[in-house]
Automatic annotation (TrEMBL):
Keywords: Transferase. GO terms for molecular function: acyltransferase activity, transferring groups other than amino-acyl groups. Residues 5-153 form the N-acetyltransferase domain. This is N-acetyltransferase. Gene3D superfamilies: 3.40.630.30. Pfam families: Acetyltransf_1 (PF00583). The lineage of its organism: Bacteria, Pseudomonadati, Pseudomonadota, Alphaproteobacteria, Sphingomonadales. The keyword Ubl conjugation does not apply. Coiled coil: none annotated.
Amino acid sequence: MIQLVPIASVPAAAIDHLLDLAFGTDRHGRTAYKLREGTDPVPELSFAAVEDGTLVGSIQCWPVELTEADGTRTPLILVGPVAVRPDRQRDGIGRLLMHKALAAADAADAAPMMLIGDAIYYDRFFGFSARHTSGWTLPGPVDRDRLLARLRPGQAIPEQASLGPSRVPALAPAIRR
């Protein structure tokens, strides 16, 4: 039986090993890593999937923000990486982790969430879309169709802004400052 536990309860080395297995050891050069550079994952939204004492998956969420040309900043939460051991992929573990993180974010009235991933999958199962992200600039290359955001009713985000790391608490409601 899979248990979802706070990611802090799993050794960091085990998470790093899982990420290497799922995404390769060259993963650190990707744009998503530049977006979260110098920040720590949001503990209330980051989980590990453990089965019989073995780590089989993880999800991490990170504080990021959009900065408009006039300096106005809007907090967001970057979802990912969502990692599942290669021999356990297609067992629904990633989906279970996503539902857990999204439910925790919704319960906390957290800032809007964004990720870089497969648009069809993340829209169909979780409500992420590229509808609001085409005018964002990032600190590295990105396939525009894979740059996705998820807004709850009443949330808004700028459509023209620069995306980067944030030092502001990620669980603050989505207010512009």
